[in-house]
Task: inverse folding
């Protein structure tokens, strides 16, 4: 599904974020990417989202080189990916309902679909009663659940979760990971980056370990080893 | 689908405008100042134009005739002058009227009045007061009179014109012409300068308002929203800033011109600003609303463009 072909990324100040990285992610896989701060995890995710371009090498989604997509194709491609971030990145002036509706509107869904799906997906993340609250009225865990609801509402092929539990307490961390696992069980590919050893060890899924921009481990049922 | 998209963009723009209350208020106030400057430039342009017009109307030249100049020849000159395309009006003042006006002017001047009563005859000749359509044309009119001998000489060849006061008025007329020409240029330069400055300030205010939203724009990008779909609500917000500011500006102009109207009139500008505002409301409305909408929409459009590059 995703193929990194000898991807390197260096910046004008000669710092290297990724160096000769190659790996493949199959459909329906749950892959965790771990590494210390500055190891290149976020750069790698940004490459998949086409927020960053590789200095060398290519990134493919199915058979398409994602850095050669035209603006229109790029919008369509991004609609096939759901993203969840450590800082939630909700639209502050929109309610929980409107945040999720926005992603559906952007994907060109009808008013009827929006009216039916948004409450449903908010129920799935157990936030039905906070539908009309603004992000500032929600706790960290609730915000992250809204972000997950937004990520899954368009039934994406891939969920990218960049340290989604970084700002959460252990109870919320557990709940968010359970939601991500459930999404994966239903057939969506999930890529997760985290610093949380407990999360990785409990998942028992594939782990790619990065160090100074290079892949140093890629274990099928790995744990957090740095 | 296009209609649905437009409805969503319009709704989103309105909701953002309403919920970003303080940012919207700041932008609207700054834009109101800009629109007030633009409207003031319109009004001061009218004021300047009217003042110059009033001054222009006060400029004339007078032809003084010798005391024995025959009336029919003077009236013939008047007819000839009236036929000139550059002449606006020619008034005939008979020697009796001239004397009456002279007496009225010097009623408190005992020496002059005594000297006048000593004379047996009226010492003043008839006069023609000439108003040109444009002050620059007085030189040509004076030239016409002094060069046209058959018209201005008696049958015996003696001139019937005593003097033309163009020579005395020439400096004043030239000065007025220069002032009028440079006031127009200066007025235009000031208008362009202030408009540009205030448009730039508004543009930067809206840019700052959108700068606050740059992360939101990035999130919209990441959920796959098209550039048009992201930019649309901001442009609607810009249009709303423009519409709100224009409404405030037009409302403020009503009491301000009402207050300034009589003051300006008393200063001899020849115009009542309030009357001008009411009579030209449709034009002022289109300029103020049009400028507000154009500045608002364009500023937003250009400001968002910068943050769409991901």
Result:
């Amino acid at each position: 599904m995703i193929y990194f072909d000898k991807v390197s990324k260096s910046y004008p100040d000669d710092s290297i974020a990724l160096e000769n990285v190659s790996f493949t992610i199959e459909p329906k896989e749950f892959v965790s990417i771990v590494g210390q701060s500055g190891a290149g995890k976020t750069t790698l995710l940004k490459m998949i989202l086409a927020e960053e371009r590789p200095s060398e090498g290519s990134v493919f989604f199915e058979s398409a080189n994602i850095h050669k997509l035209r603006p229109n194709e790029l919008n369509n491609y991004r609609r096939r990916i759901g993203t969840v971030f450590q800082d939630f990145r909700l639209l502050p002036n929109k309610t929980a309902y409107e945040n999720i509706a926005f992603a559906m509107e952007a994907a060109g869904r009808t008013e009827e679909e929006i009216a039916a799906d948004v409450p449903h997906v908010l129920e799935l993340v157990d936030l039905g009663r906070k539908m009309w609250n603004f992000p500032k009225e929600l706790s960290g865990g609730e915000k992250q659940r809204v972000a997950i609801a937004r990520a899954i509402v368009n039934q994406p092929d891939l969920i990218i979760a960049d340290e989604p539990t970084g700002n959460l307490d252990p109870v919320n961390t557990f709940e968010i990971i359970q939601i991500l696992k459930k999404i994966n069980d239903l057939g969506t590919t999930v890529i997760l980056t985290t610093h949380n050893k407990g999360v990785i060890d409990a998942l028992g899924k594939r782990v790619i370990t990065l160090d100074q921009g290079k892949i140093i481990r890629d274990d099928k049922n790995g744990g957090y080893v740095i | 689908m296009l209609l649905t998209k437009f409805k969503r963009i319009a709704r989103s723009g309105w909701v953002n405008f309403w919920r970003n209350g303080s940012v919207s208020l700041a932008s609207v106030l700054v834009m109101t100042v800009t629109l007030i400057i633009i409207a003031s430039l319109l009004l001061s342009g009218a004021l300047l134009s009217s003042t110059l017009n009033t001054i222009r109307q006060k400029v004339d030249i007078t032809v003084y005739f010798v005391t024995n100049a025959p009336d029919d020849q003077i009236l013939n000159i008047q007819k000839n002058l009236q036929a000139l395309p550059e002449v606006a009006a020619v008034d005939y003042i008979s020697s009796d009227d001239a004397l009456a006006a002279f007496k009225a002017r010097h009623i408190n001047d005992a020496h002059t009045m005594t000297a006048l009563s000593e004379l047996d005859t009226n010492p003043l000749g008839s006069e023609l007061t000439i108003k040109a359509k444009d002050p620059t044309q007085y030189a040509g009119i004076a030239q016409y009179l002094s060069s046209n001998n058959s018209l201005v000489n008696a049958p015996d060849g003696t001139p019937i014109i005593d003097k033309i006061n163009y020579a005395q008025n020439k400096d004043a007329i030239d000065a007025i012409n220069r002032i009028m020409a440079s006031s127009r240029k200066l007025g235009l330069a000031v208008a362009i300068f202030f408009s540009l400055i205030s448009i730039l300030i508004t543009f930067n205010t809206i840019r700052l308002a959108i700068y606050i939203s740059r992360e939101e724009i990035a999130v919209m990008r990441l959920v796959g929203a098209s550039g048009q779909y992201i930019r649309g609500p901001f442009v609607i917000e810009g249009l709303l800033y423009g519409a709100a500011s224009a409404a405030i500006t037009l409302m403020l102009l009503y009491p301000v011109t009402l207050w300034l109207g009589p003051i300006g009139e008393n200063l001899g500008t020849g115009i009542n600003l309030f009357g001008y505002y009411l009579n030209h409301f449709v034009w002022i409305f289109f300029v103020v609303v049009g400028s507000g909408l154009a500045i608002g929409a364009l500023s937003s459009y250009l400001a968002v463009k910068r943050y769409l590059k991901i």
Remarks:
- Chain B has a mean pLDDT of 83.
